Amino acid sequence: MRSSSPLPRMSRRGRVTIAVLVGVFVLFTLLGWGVQAWTDWLWFDEVDYTQVFTGVLVTRLLLFVVIGLAMALIVGGNLWLAHRVRPRLRPHSVEQATLERYRMALSPRLSTWIALVAGVVGLFAGLSAQSRWNQWLLFRNGGDFGVKDPEFGVDVGFYVFQLPFWRYLLGVGFTAVVLAVVGALAVHYIFGGVRLQGVGDRMTNAARAHLSTLVAVFVLLKAIAYVLDRRAMLLEYNEGAKLYGAGYADVNALLPAKEILAYISIVVAIAIIVFSNAWMRNLVWPGISLALLGVSAVAIGGIYPWAVQTFEVKPSAKEKEAPYIQRSIDATRTAFGLGATETTPYAATNLTPPASLATDTSVVSNVRLLDPQLVSETYTQLQQVRGFYDFGPKLDIDRYGVNGKTSDYVVGVREINYGELTDQQNTWINRHTVYTHGYGLVAAPANQVVCGGQPFFVSGFLGEKTQEACSSQTEQIPATQPRIYYGERMEDGDYAIVGQTDPEKKAEFDRPVGEGGGESYTYTGTGGVEIGSFTRRLLYAIKEQESNFLLSGAVNDNSKLLYVRNPRDRVEKVAPFLTLDGDPYPAVVDGRVQWIVDGYTTAATYPYAERVNLREETTDELTGRGTFQLARENVNYIRNSVKATVDAYDGTVRLYEFDDKDPVLKAWNKAFGGDLVLPKKDIPTELAEHFRYPADMFKVQRNLLTKFHVTNPGDFYSAQDFWQVPNVPDAPDSGQKQPPYYLFTEFPGQDGPRFQLTSAVTPNGRQNLAALISGSYVDGEPRLEVLELPDQTRISGPVQVHQQMTNNANIRQQLNLLSSNQAQVQYGNLLSLPFGDGMLYVEPVYVKSNQQDAYPLLQKVLLSYGDGGSFVALADNLTDGIKQLVDQGKRAGQGAPPPTTGGNPPPPTGGDTNPPPLTGELAAAADRVQTAITEVRAAQASGDFERYGRALKALDEALTAFQQAQGQANPAPSGSPTPTGSASPSPTGSPTAGTGG
């Protein structure tokens, strides 16, 4: 009788169909990989970084092959061994009869099945391993840090370079053994080596020896894991101290427990082999040994450390954890570059504006009034010329020496924004061969406005200048090559095809000229991949899935393809081991526009150092609005080790070593041949002059300094002196942190104005000012400085100061005049400036009409000195505001009460409460105020900002005249200080008298 097959057989047609489908899938997969690899090679060859491409590719392939092959051999070898030692004779039983059909199906092609299973396991293991290329390269090329951990005395380099890969290999070992045990057990069961039914032993001697050996190997790997865990304990979170690193209970209980468990594991592994094979030859005692190991792990590794933590540490945690808190403080300050932070006490006892404010040349004259976020719209409207040009949502701050004076400038690059092309412009030809580049770096002094609140543009002009007072008549920051082929507005898919066979044929739109016209241009730079041959065109047609590469006449023998045009993406591709700052910025260096990108080397295994998430620490109001959001990367070591540049014309990428002591950068440079990063001495002097303290690193350091400025472990544990970063002053309920801001200024203790990144911090849970933190470069080296105020200071923090200034009665009325149904008030950076043993706050006030295509104009400047509320001013410009503050300070010094610049007088006691009618000069002054208010409203409605600026100036003059007339009509009684009168028009236009200037 013919027995039925245990598995149905597939028809020949079905097998052919499946084979064809699999073949097509593999073909297209390999084709896609091949095209991607080939185009990547061409791109890396263009930028001259092929060692990165080959280094990463070869490393990934080696890891894939070695780890995949090792895993396949271990699993496949154990499957083969399990079949090899199968029993020749099996007792008859129902169980064996059931398994017979599976043996019949597997036996004819058992080698194929084993190879298939091993191949699948090896494939997934290899795919996982190739992603560990960075760990392997650091493992192979890493050196010493020259710093030893405080517990074992092991160099930190072991934790950063060696430990991660060792732990990965250990995980691979565990996975291999577990899969081998499961696979071998299945084969032994199918072929009779392990039985669940029948008489006699449940397991043959060969199967017992095989499986017990695998279990013993697993236990030995556990012993190795305990040894590595002892080192890794220095990276774990200490719940008792709320810090990272081993604490008291870890060092005194868990650390010896893991050592004991490592020895127990070795003994158990030996016991399993001996009791299973050499003596007694059963699984009872091996099972008991494993159970004892589990009990020991719970008792020694769990209960005992818990008891020490609960009954010994918690009752006196401050004293017990003090040495380990000190370790964490020291390690964190070293790992994040906080160790050299200079902390200077700043009493800030002066609450009265000093007369020197009016004559200062180092702080006041350099106060930045232009907010790079707000004036971006202004740049776009005034310097755009064509609708497809764009400056992005946020500009940048840099400094230049013009006419012998160094000042900070707000700079932006006029780029092509492909999203703004019209439907007619947005054809394939226009998008990729005509609108290929932007033009010019536009700059304006950060402390100067003209023409009713506009920036004073000094560079980036598109053509001949007309005689205007709103911009410079010459290029003060000249760029010999102003064209922008690579920029922040370029996204994936925004490639450009450039180059012509006929030199007279210029297809690229260069810049607007005259009324609606424009000049044309042909790219002559070295950037781009040559695509003149048919093979290259076919290659990129497949890559971009675009047939025009083959069909369009715009692609010729001299054509080049420019892609990966975003400078940050470009650097990330040539240096995949770097974490890049989210705010690249442009600079004119030697006549060319260069993008400067700060690169960080990071690690997550620095012992005892605090671990932070880069995305969480660097997110603030500006994230996603002109700055890139960083990845969710947990790190406990960071260095600004690389300054990268990308040429905006030809895309040339250069990596310059900035931190020549960073061991992580040295390891990466060694991994890629030793010449990937140019040495620090090769940085051009003109380029170095534009380096600035990187924003994202400063945010991380600032946030850590809010806690780790406390270096006494007892004070740290009590957390009473911790600080916090304040919220955005004009929107504190948003929950967004105030971004740091760049200033060219001089702080107390500095020997001159310095370009520095600055941030104010407040005490934890309070709003008064605690300290100012600044980061700058001195002689090419980074320097962090902290001006720390006394604990009980009266100086208000940014949120308080903004509220006090804008809630002042007189100022509030003037701000209400600026805003209406046709306009809105926007506040710029609130700058905190230490001056004259006190604090000066400056906040520019912009007005933006609600008309279409309107842009913000700087109309007023808010100022405050002292505690934030006593001396405040709202002026047309900084000079007038400083004068008002100084005058207020003089009056206060003469015994007059501090001016309040507003507020209504108390109602008269008794009699008629209605104010008397205005007469004479006072009535004329009131009429003038009313007329000025009417003009302001008319200017707002018209959308003419120059007229609006003139109207506001006339209103200020009218208010001043009203105050003078009011003072003459109501002289102060003799023997008492003469109050300074003020007049503020009410919303209805009638003047309202106020007391206290």
Question: How would you describe this structure to a colleague?
Answer:
With 997 residues, this protein is α+β, with helices and mostly antiparallel strands. Helices cover 42% and strands 18% of the residues. The protein is built from 26 helices and 36 strands. Strands 3, 25, 26, 27, 28 and 29 form a six-stranded mixed beta sheet that branches. Strands 18, 19, 20, 23 and 24 form a five-stranded antiparallel beta sheet that branches. Helix 1 (12-47) runs antiparallel to helix 2 (50-84) and helix 2 crosses helix 5 (133-141). The protein is globular and about 125 Å long. Mean pLDDT is 85; it is low at 1-7, 900-915 and 971-997.
Give a short overview.
With 997 residues, the chain is α+β, with helices and mostly antiparallel strands.
Topology of helices and strands:
Elements: H1 12-47, H2 50-84, H3 94-106, H4 110-130, H5 133-141, H6 156-190, H7 205-232, E1 237-238, E2 243-244, H8 248-278, H9 284-313, H10 317-320, H11 322-335, E3 342-345, H12 375-383, E4 389-390, E5 396-402, E6 405-413, E7 415-416, H13 428-434, E8 438-439, E9 441-445, E10 449-450, E11 454-455, E12 483-484, E13 496-498, E14 508-513, E15 517-521, E16 529-530, H14 534-544, H15 548-551, E17 560-562, H16 567-574, E18 579-580, E19 585-589, E20 592-603, E21 612-613, H17 614-618, E22 634-635, E23 637-647, E24 653-657, H18 663-671, H19 685-688, H20 695-708, H21 713-718, E25 723-724, E26 741-745, E27 754-763, E28 771-778, E29 781-788, H22 798-807, H23 809-818, E30 823-827, E31 831-835, E32 838-849, E33 857-865, E34 871-875, H24 878-893, H25 920-942, H26 945-969, E35 982-985, E36 991-994
